[in-house]
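Lab notebook: predicted structure, single chain.

Context: the supervisor wants predicted structures on file for every construct in the current expression panel, including those that have not yet been purified. This is the next one on the list. No modifications to the sequence; it matches the entry in the shared construct table.
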Amino acid sequence: MNYLVRGEYTKKAFLRSLNCLGIKKLGMYLLHFPYLGSYLDCWHDMEELYKEGYVEATGVCNCHIHHLEAIRKESEIIPFVNQVECHPYLAQNDILLYCKENNIQMEAYSPFARNLPDMIYNTVLVKIAKNHRKTVQQIILRWNYQRGVIALPKASRIEHICDNINIFDFTLDSSEMSEIKTLNKGFRIRFNPDTVDYGAL
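Prediction complete. Output recorded below exactly as produced.
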């Protein structure tokens, strides 16, 4: 579960949410955004929640390497998860490598870039999808899976949920993975934490 919390309010917000949910602990608690001047304080509060047994795992979202490094240098516990925007047009390869080296699981939100037509109908992805008799979305999910990334696709229809699960009966070969790698162009559909206008959030 994600909650937008800042500084000294982190623990209060968490306990209020726990009370509203009527439960005693959460499986995962994520810091939604690395707000300047407050995200380290938030993380220290989240460390306390973990140590006190309120959560089984803590993580962050939208963190670049320098955010993760700041947390690592100033904390006893590093994030279990870093959830970032990730799709073939924004592969986040540097962050993925850092996460693997530091035992942080990378998660991909918006793995289909909100079904951006330019990407969903990209000739490379369409060709690979036809080769495997799969949808482009399934190719993207398989690409993430083979990179060691957990993808979090949105789906509200049963058939889409089934499609999202049905990615384990085929494998992308090295040439196909390389082709998808060429699509990375640093294109974002969401906010970059280093350049965002915080007033817009």
